[in-house]
Amino acid sequence: MSLPPGFLDELRNRISIAQVVGRKVMWDQRKSNQAKGDLWAPCPFHQEKTASFHVDDRKGFYYCFGCHAKGDAIGFVQETENVGFMEAIEILAREAGLQMPARDPQAAQQADRNSRLAAANEAAVAHFRLQLKTGAAADARAYLARRGLDAATRDRFEIGYAPARQGVLAALTAKGLKPEDVIEAGLATTPDDGRAPYDAFRDRIMFPIRDARGRCIGFGGRAMAADAQAKYLNTRETPLFDKGRALYNHGPAREAAGKGQPLIVAEGYMDVIALVQAGFGAAVAPLGTAITEDQLRLMWRMADEPIIALDGDKAGLRAAERLVGLALPLLQPGKTLRFCLMPEGMDPDELIKAKGPEAMRAALDAAEPLVRMLWRRETEGQVFDTPERRHALDLRLRQAIGVIGDPGLKRHYGEALADLRRGLFQPQQGWRPRGEGRGRGFGFSEAQAPLAGTRASALGSGALSADDLRVTLILATLCRYPDLVERFETDLDRLAPRHPDHAALADLLLSTPAAHEAEVEAACTAHGLGPALDGLRGMAHLRIAPVLAGPPAPDKAATCLAEEFAKLHAARALEAEMAEALEDLDRAPEEGDTRLVRRLNHAVQRRLTATRPASAETAGAVSEDTAALSKGLRALIEARVWEKKSR
């Protein structure tokens, strides 16, 4: 809503910031000079004993010399009441007796209509509260007493009672309210068959539902009769009331959350009341249905990480799982959910009564992040003992996080799920999540045996040559540090792995741009190479390799790759030269020993020169391979294979 020119100036002229702030602080009389509008108090935004919070009433501003909070009266109401800009304007305008401008004639008519409906609801609140004190409400009062709601609590939450006979429609019309307003407010219903209107709530304990501005927009009624058709009944949809866009205890919870209390989302009215009684003032509840997108956005306006406190039963877990699916597409950096599942068979009200507020606080402190609830939803009660089941899990997880709009947030979810996946598939003692303990690597800190599913694979069977072992070290290092692929692209292209799984991973690294390990994992999952990657990580010689088992070290990884590629190329060069020399011997067996030895030595030296590194970082590697090649050559010569071939 846009405000007409001059409206804010008029509002600021009519209000005194000293009066607005004075409702929240105690002025320090020794430092303050009220005659000059120079006022001091302990800051309401942080804990302190000295008066460092200054208000200049003449200029209309405040400033804290401790926490540096500053602003005008509108900003102060926004911060202390945890409301938006327009809501703060409306609050101050009511105090100043200033009429909020209407957008257009239709908006003015709707505002007038809503005011009449709100007035009908307020009259109903008073009526129901009065009825709770009558003899007809004896059972209702006894029920509330059994639930631990004393008179002070009933008054705080304005709880009332709707009798079975003495109707609110007759009572409110007798006070001068129009019957049509009472009916439109949802307090009474007109039958389709033309009969007289009747009360919507009968023989029910009544819980007023107020919006963020404090208006009573509807009611929730708890049936006293055991055979009632609905245990809880809400006001039907009205111009004021939309149960999918409202929260029970919204206004008080918003204010408490603005002061730093955790926002707790419970399932029902009694849970909210129990939480507030126990000191958890920022508690709200949806109105008898699953949480909606609109309600979730309302929660995020109050707090960045609402805690969903659900009953400890199957229904509570299903509700949590549904909420995960609702929340994932709406997530933003800093805006998420945490889940606090109560002990089995208990709700927050029962937990507090049985074990006290400290037990509830401990449960809240142990609340799980949304990513773990997603993992629980996709894995609990299932067995992943085959590649097919694991692949199906990978697909579900990828589809689940695919709806997250923010790319960075989606990447972090992928990394977190990859850690959880490693913990599930390779749960031996040495495993730790990424970033915990000394071993990041691929989720391992100590050597472990491969899983049964990977021992049977080509990667995990152990029947690999020295060439293959070197290839796996190169591939594993590049999977952990995919940003090095571009630097070693030519060498990787020449890698020519002999095993199909190796070749597939090499092709994926060359064809899939990736900057992080999690992106490689996601690409492997998408191309059906998850088992191949698991097999690679399950190999014993890789789990103890320093470049993989230790903390992240990109420079160390680059040096390792340069060395391993140099060794691999040199070893393959020797193989090729020896094979060529022996083929020549087959064609010319009459060549003498000295000439053949000289030719083999020349071939090896030519290959070593061709593969000599340009920098010193791989000089050691070539030196090692020179010795290895010389030893291999000596063995070949000593075996005098040409004599065997010539026989």
From TrEMBL:
Name any one Pfam family assigned in the record: Toprim_4
Keywords on this record? Answer: DNA replication, DNA-binding, DNA-directed RNA polymerase, Magnesium, Metal-binding, Nucleotidyltransferase, Primosome, Transcription, Transferase, Zinc, Zinc-finger
* Kinase listed as a keyword: no
**Segments forming CHC2-type zinc fingers:** 43-67
Give the note describing cofactor binding and stoichiometry: Binds 1 zinc ion per monomer.
One GO process term, biological-process aspect? DNA replication, synthesis of primer
Q: Molecular function (GO) terms listed?
A: DNA binding; DNA-directed RNA polymerase activity; zinc ion binding
- Which NCBIfam families does the record match to this protein? dnaG
The family note in this entry says: Belongs to the DnaG primase family.
Q: What is this protein called?
A: DNA primase
Q: Which organism is it from?
A: Roseicyclus persicicus
